[in-house]
Structures are given as C-alpha cells and as structure tokens.
Amino acid sequence: MTVALLFILLDAVGTFVFGLSGAMVAMRRRFDIFGILVLAVATGVAGGMVRDLLLGSTPPDALRTVWPLAIASLAGVCVFFFKPLIERLNRPVMLLDAIGLGIFAVAGCRKALLYGLDAPGAVLLGVISAVGGGVLRDIMATEVPRVLHEDIYALAALAGAAAYAGCLWFGVQDSIAAVGAVIFAVGLRLASVRFGWHLPHPPK
Amino acid sequence: MTVALLFILLDAVGTFVFGLSGAMVAMRRRFDIFGILVLAVATGVAGGMVRDLLLGSTPPDALRTVWPLAIASLAGVCVFFFKPLIERLNRPVMLLDAIGLGIFAVAGCRKALLYGLDAPGAVLLGVISAVGGGVLRDIMATEVPRVLHEDIYALAALAGAAAYAGCLWFGVQDSIAAVGAVIFAVGLRLASVRFGWHLPHPPK
Amino acid sequence: MTVALLFILLDAVGTFVFGLSGAMVAMRRRFDIFGILVLAVATGVAGGMVRDLLLGSTPPDALRTVWPLAIASLAGVCVFFFKPLIERLNRPVMLLDAIGLGIFAVAGCRKALLYGLDAPGAVLLGVISAVGGGVLRDIMATEVPRVLHEDIYALAALAGAAAYAGCLWFGVQDSIAAVGAVIFAVGLRLASVRFGWHLPHPPK
C-alpha cells in the first residue's frame, strides 16, 4: 500500500470515529437528527479544517472534496440508528475519541512536514488538529473540553506526533512510522484510562 | 439592480440583523454598552470572516472595508437605545437570527461558487458561514448553540444554499435564484417555529 | 533599540503573561500539569494565530518558530511551581491579562498596518488579536468571556490600538508610539478596575 493511500484511509477512519463521538454526545443531550448530524460533522471535520487553515492550504480538504462531509454524516446516521450497538463498547466516546486523536495527531504532523514546517511546529500542528475536533464538540455541548481535565490526553497526541517525527528523522519508513505512532498514541491514551495513570496535579 | 449590488445589500442586511440578535442576547445578560457592541460585532461579522478564511480570501472583507464593523456597531447602538421597540416583535432573537441565517447561507454559497468550489463544498460553506455567527454568539454567552438543539435550523440554511445552487444549475437568473432561496430558507425556519415542526429525535 | 526588536520583545512578554493567566485559571480548576500547559499555550498563542490567519500570513509565527510555544509553556511551568508567589499579586489573572491585552492590541494593529490594511481594519484586527487569547481561555473554562461582562476591556484594547495608529498618523516615531500606546491601554484597563469606572449599562 502506498503511503498516500494509507493516509487517505487514516483520515477517513479518524473522521468517522470523531463523527461517531460527536453524534454520541449529541444523542445524550437528546438533540434532533439534524443537530446530531451537525455535531458529528463539526467534530469530524473541524480538526482537519483548522490544520488546513493554519497551513494556508485553502479551501481546506473538507470543502474541496465531499468525502469528509459524507463520512462524518454517515457516522451521525449510524449513531442515530445503531446507538445501542455502539453503547455496548466500554465508554464509547472515550474510545472513539482516542482513536481519532492518535490518527489526527500523526496525519496533522505529516501534512505540516510536507508543507515545510520544522519538526517542533509540525508536532504542535499535529496536536492542534488532533484536539481541535474534540474541543469544538465539547465547547458546543457547553462542557469543559476533555483536553483540559483528562489526564494524558494532549500528551498522548504530542507523544504520537513526536514519535512519528522522530521515526522519520531516524530513517524509519513512512508508513511503518505512521502506523506505529498511531498505535502508540492510541495505546498510551487507552492505557492511561484503563490503569488510571495520572499526571501530577497542583498541590492544594 | 445588478447582482453584485444585490449581494452587497443582502450582506449588509444580514450583518445588521445578526448584530441585532447578538446585542439582544447581550442586553438580556445585562452586559455594559461595550460588551453589547462586542457581541453585536462578533455575531455580525464572524460568519463572513470564517467564510473568507476558509476560501483563503484574506484579509477578510470585514477587515478590508469598514462597513461590516460599522453596520454591526450600529445594530448594537440601536438595541441599546430602542430595545423596547425591538422587543415588541414576537421572539426577536429567533426572528432576526432566521433572517441572517437565510441571507448568509445563500451569500456564502455564492461566494464559494465564485471561488471555484464544487456545489457540495459551496453548500457546506454556505451552512458554515450562516451558522458561524450564531454559534459564536451562543458560545460566548455560554449557551448551547441553537444550531444543535433547535429543530430545522441548520437544515433551513442547508435548504437555502442547496436551493440557490440548484436554481443556478437549472439556469435560473442569479438574482432571482438568490432572493427566492433566501425567502425559502427564512420561511422554512419561521414556519418550523410557528407550526412546531419537528425532526425525529432519538428514541428513548 | 530597533523597532523590530522592540516588537519581538513585546510579543514575548505578551505571550508569557497571557500564558500565566491561562495557567492560573487552569490551576483554579485543578487540571493536571498537562491541562495547565495546554491552557497556558492556548491562551498565549491563540491571539497571534488568529491575527496571522486573518492577515493570510500562514503558517502563523507560532508554528514557524518554536518561541511562542516555548514561552507559553514556560509560563505554565512557572505557575505550576510558583503559584503562591504569583498569587501575592492583587487579582493576578486580571493584572496579567491586562498587560497581554495592551501589548497584543498594539502589536496586532502594527502587523496589520505592515500588511497594508487601512487604519480602521488594523485597529479592529488589533482588538481581535488582543481579546482572542482571553476569549479562548474563558470559553474552554466554560466561563463567560470577560470581554463581554467586564467594563472597559475591549474598549482599552481599542483605545490602545487607535492611539498607536493615531500617533503614527501624526508622525510620532514608531517605538515611542508603541510603548506609549501599550502603557495607555494597560493603564486604562487597570485604572478602570482600581477606580471602579463603569460604562453605561442598559436601563432596567
């Protein structure tokens, strides 16, 4: 599989799982079907839009092709009809959000490197595009974004993007670096939830 | 009347009514005069700014000309002095918001088509620029954006933008298509509120 | 000191104090160390990012150089370890926020003038970049942004940016105009808090 195709696939999966997470939040708040679609699309495409805006790559992918919109809408429809199925997952919003987080961190970092940013800027852009969708979802639902109060959330995105940039630096092949970094970021996020890892909190 | 002039006029009216809606929300929260102006300007110009950013048309109109700022500020001042007059309207924020919604959906779609986007991307951009101002207004007032919980809100914007793009496709003259699509979107929104039309909500 | 160097220094100070203010808010909410860093960085760099986006200067400074990220992160670390020291200040978030507000209003206005905007657009961009970081900070912490409910907040940013543009118009030397305008804006904001100056509120 070529690298370009791999990243198209990753982007699609990331958009879909973020769309699912947005739709799940909208279902809990009992919005109607179109409110659910709006939050699914907003959560699915916002991170990529912010990434493209910051890189000066306008109009962003989500407006140039119909796929991000279609994929995120499909996620919203899936949640509307098959919510009980998704709810059998353990903490579905957390899980879906973690997968999207890892994918967009690496994909955002890669696009920034292709656009000529240095590694630190590229890693920061990866983090921004990874957390962007979730921040918009939580703000629109008037909740404190989980990037602020969940332990090891932005840190997992940072670790994934930095691992990817580091692997490329040491000459690892692009697709291996990408898949490894995504698994690393998602695994770190899930492990931190599963095992209750905590970062230091401020002293009282 | 030329098409360009018609759209300048529509943009002005949309900015003004969104400005009024932002100022009304600020009045209810009892902000001071400058807080009212800030929310009027933010609500009036945010949608257009996001539209221009996503199209790569920088600096956006609202910074290149003084009109959007002046019109939205005027709306803030009007509300400060003539609030009782505006409050005689039935649900003024909803009504003003509906007019702005329809106008910006069509105007955003048109600008995107002029910039060479395909119809689906142009319709999506129309929806984003139509709901952008209201989302910022509601988020800044720490309310759940009405695009999420009001029935037939984003759907009305989508219907207006799609109707406009569809009319052009079938060769309808630009200004007729624009006016018709705006009336259709505003009418759909108002009718849904008046007659209590609902979209399906998720099953319990 | 050259003008360019002065503005680099001002930008650094503004990023640092905004970073401190974001970290202080995060500490109060008892986020963990990384949540504190995220809010410090978001508050410190958001205003400048929005400014660069609106000017079409992409990728923004905060991604092209590592300094804004490093400075805002340092602010987060400082707050984590030395919070008691900062808390001895009278209303530290208000004070730090005021300094950042004045600096970014003038720096944003200057960059906009360099990019060829007219004075009104440049002043508006100064206000947007001055209030942008604080709005994001308050929205992420699910508080009503202080730009809406604090008397003489956006007005202080507007006064600073307008004073700077006005001084240049009358031929005052750039660095003198800049320092004077920053002091004027910060002083106006602090004086309004200290002496309880109020803008008119809407009649009951």
From TrEMBL, chains A, B, C:
The lineage of its organism: Bacteria, Pseudomonadati, Pseudomonadota, Alphaproteobacteria, Rhodobacterales. InterPro entries: Gly_transporter. This is Glycine transporter domain-containing protein. PANTHER family: INNER MEMBRANE PROTEIN, UPF0126 INNER MEMBRANE PROTEIN YADS-RELATED. Residues 9-82, 95-166 form the Glycine transporter domain. Keywords: Cell membrane, Membrane, Transmembrane, Transmembrane helix. The chain crosses the membrane at residues 6-26, 33-50, 62-82, 119-140, 152-172, 178-197. It comes from Ascidiaceihabitans donghaensis. One of its GO terms (cellular component) is plasma membrane. It holds the Pfam family Gly_transporter. It is a multi-pass membrane protein. It comes from the Bacteria. Belongs to the UPF0126 family. It is found in: Cell membrane.
